[in-house]
Design goal:
Layout: E1 2-5, E2 11-14, E3 20-24, E4 32-44, E5 47-58, E6 67-70, H1 73-79, E7 86-95, E8 98-106, H2 114-117
Parallel strand pairs: 1-6, 6-7
Antiparallel strand pairs: 2-3, 4-5, 7-8
């Protein structure tokens, strides 16, 4: 399995004993989201109100057999579970205030369960 890091940052996966078990270097391409907004009626005379009309994911390659793409959590959420080959770092591990790694990777394919769906109003 090939792991392609599209975050722009070194990813270190750290086990429960604090050992780094995998380094994933940045690929050189950074996948980002771009939000598009439309101006709405102001909330007050001096407060603009914008409505999000579209979120576009940029620089995400097409799926490739045997390849996992690693993106930020913002990008992963924007995809709304549409790409089973896209993951984000999970379980930030810190030394003081500095994030030094994560405990693994997660994706959002089929994450909406009937239990969660019941909470939607």
């Amino acid at each position: 399995m090939k792991l392609v890091n599209l975050t722009g940052h070194l990813i270190q996966i750290i086990d429960d004993n604090g050992n780094i078990v995998r380094y994933i270097e940045p690929s050189g391409t950074v996948c980002r989201i771009k939000d598009k907004f439309q101006l709405s009626e102001p909330l007050e005379s001096s407060v603009l109100r914008l409505q999000l009309t579209k979120t576009v994911v940029k620089h995400l390659p097409h799926p490739r057999e045997g390849t996992i793409y690693i993106v930020s959590q913002l990008v992963l959420r924007a995809l709304q579970g549409s790409r089973p080959d896209v993951y984000a770092p999970y379980g930030g591990i810190f030394e003081g205030n500095n994030k030094v790694g994560c405990s693994g990777l997660y994706n959002m394919t089929n994450t909406l369960t009937s239990e969660l769906a019941g909470d939607v109003e």
